Amino acid sequence: MPKVSRKRRSGYHSRQVASCLAAPLPLPLYPSSSMQRYVPDAIACSRRPARKLITRLLSAALLLLPAAPLTLLPHPGVAQSLPTLGDTEREGLSPLMERRLGEEIMRDIRSDRDYVDDGPISEYLNNFGLNLVSIHPEVRGEAGFDFQFFMVRDPMLNAFALPGGFIGVNSGLVLAAQSESELAGVMSHEIGHVAQRHIARMLGQQKQNSMIQLAAIVLGALAGVSKAGGDAAMATMMGGTGLAVQRQLNFSRDAEREADRIGLQIMRDGGFDPSGMVTFFGRLQAASRNYSDAVPPYLMTHPLTTERIADIEARIRDQRYKQRVDNPEFQLVRARTQVLQNDTVQGLRENAEKFIAQARQNTKLQTAAAKYGLAYVYYRQNKFEQAETALKEAQEAAIPMKTGIMFGSLDIDIKIARKQSSQAVQLADALRKQFPISRTIARQYADALIAARRTDEAVAYLRDQAQLYRSDAQVQQLLAKAYASQGKQALQHLALAESYALNGSLLAAIDQLGIARRAPDATFYDQSQIDAREREWKERWKDEQKEMKDRS
């Protein structure tokens, strides 16, 4: 079933950088998890300090990057009048290098326990984000970046752009957004950062020094995670960076304004309400003002959010108000996100109570979303009959709204859990024909085939899927599950190895190859494939270790 990844990792590579939406520097609103941050329940749904490695690293990374000179150049495409900030090719960070850097960071993020590996949520975010990109395809740039969007489980209001077209949003941000226009304002802003290659421009001039400094950030973060001294770890990371921060200030102002302007144009031309950006950024500003004791000094001494909001308001003042009806999927995704953000035993109980109360609201969509959230809570509590009943009530309340895969995907999971595998296969088969490009439904169809013990069909289908989507680790995991059902040990562990490698866990992948090699049913062809993969992954692992050593 789709779930939040719980795998623990010791940390990330030293190449982690991020550009964040609401700050004078490219930092999140609440950048330090060791500063005992608290967010009001109405905004973040949690009062506990978030001690998460993803937030810690993504928050701190850009503080230590060297400043890049500001050069005003014409930029073709979506924002011809906007300044561009240097020539990244000349400064040494090519689009290919930028993409590779982003992919390496993503391999580590996918292995983190707070990476949200949930099919319906991931599919919604990517469909929504790619729709924004399609409004002005030129934001992909000459490199033609393949944008990918993902969620991190964290109650803090934040979004960030990684090198090469990877954009992350926190679960707290999705819950705080009251409309798709507000979400579009945040995501189009991050698309603007990628379009203008702000991270590449900051790394380009002195990228070797930047990487060494980022390695120090990782060491400081790991010290904070492994020991109780979170504040001391942050002091290690932040120490001696004041000059770098000051030098970056003007660059950051221009980069943020530039991303705002591109984001506004995407929203305006895409039919979204541009005031959604103002509304949401205003909410961020209010959070920092009302809880100033929890906000780092960078925001208190450089209140650029006020200037940015004023600039955005001036740009949209003469535009006609646009009433936009949100896709019903948005509210269903928010309900599902609420469950995933706090899926402890107590959290599930509290969410059930909230959804029961919300289901009494007047609008059909609010009722449908609350019933859907309740169904998902019951499913996570293994109360499958109650989950089925709540889901039917949600579907009835949603008629005739278009809800995409949201209801059907949960229905498949419930049917598999209730051992109704034949019905699950029938439903999944119908849905994959209705939504032929849905990766979520494709995986669930394979899972239903395995549950129905139609493993030969499952293997054939998954092998085709593995050829079509070579970077899909979940397909390899399902293939391993299917091979296990067939009793094919060598192929099972070979598929597991592929899934680990795709998630960036090379040592675990190599270990699985060893198990596959020793399997009694390993054929000569299997052994050849194992040997080839082992050489490739060992070489890659050695290269990564050497690279990290050179930067230490």
Structure description:
With 552 residues, the chain is mostly helical. Among the domains are: 3-316, no CATH class; 488-552. It is 63% helix and 4% strand. It has 26 helices and six strands. The strands form two sheets. It has a four-stranded mixed β-sheet, with helices on both faces. Strand 5 (159-162) and strand 6 form a beta hairpin. The longest helix has 28 residues, at 242-269. The two termini are 40 Å apart. The model is unreliable at 3-90, 206-251 and 296-303 (pLDDT under 50). This is Zn-dependent protease, containing TPR repeats, protein. Keywords: Hydrolase, Membrane, Metal-binding, Metalloprotease, Protease, Transmembrane, Transmembrane helix, Zinc. It comes from Herbaspirillum seropedicae (strain SmR1).
Question: What's the short story on this structure?
Answer:
The chain has 552 residues and is mainly alpha-helical.
Mean pLDDT score: 76
Provide the gyration radius in Å. 24 Å
- The largest sheet has its strands arranged as 2-5-6-4
Compute the separation of the termini in Å.
40 Å
Give the helix level as a range of percent.
55-70%
Taken as a percent bin, the fraction of beta residues is under 5%
Count every beta strand, where a strand is a DSSP E run of 2 or more residues. Answer: 6
The number of helical elements comes to: 26
Structural classification: mainly alpha
Spans of at least 5 consecutive residues whose pLDDT stays below 50 are: 3-90, 206-251, 296-303
Please give the largest β-sheet. 4 strands, mixed
Shape: globular
